[in-house]
Amino acid sequence: MSRAMAFLTRRKGGDAWDWTDVFTFIWLGSAVFIMFGPALWLVLSSFKSPAQLSEFPPTLLPYEAQTVAVEGYDRLLPLFSVSDDDGTRTLAEVRRVGTVAQMVDPANPAEVQRINIANRTPVREVGFSWGNYLDPFLRFDFLNYTKNSIFVTGVATLITLLTNSMAAFALSKYEFRGRGFVVVLIIATLMIPLSVILVPLYSIVAGVGLINSLWGVILPTVATPTGVFLLRQYMLTIPDELLEAARMDHASEWQIYWRIVLPLTAPALAVLAIFSVVWRWNDFLWPLIVLSRQEVYTLQVGLNAYAGELNVQWHYLLAMTVITMIPVVLVFIFLQRFITAGIAGTGLK
Amino acid sequence: MTGVKGMLGAVVTAPLGWLARLLDAPLRLWQRVAGQGGMVAFFLLPNMAIFTIFVLLPLVINIAYSMTTGAALFLPDRTYVGMGQYERLLRCTDYTNLMTCQEDQFWIALRNTGTFVVLQVSLLIVAATITALILNRALRALSFWRAVFFFPVLLSPVVVGLIWRWILDRNGVLNAALVGVGMDPVNWLLERNYAFSAAIGVTIWAQLGFFALILLAGLQAIPRDLYEAAEMDGTKPARVFWRITLPLLMPNMLVVIVLALIRAVQVFDEAYVLTGGGPGTATLFLTQYIYEVGFASLLKNPGLAAAASILMGGVLIVLTLLQLALGKRNERKGKLK
Question: Using an 8 Å Cβ cutoff, are A102 and A95 in contact?
Answer without folding.
Answer: yes
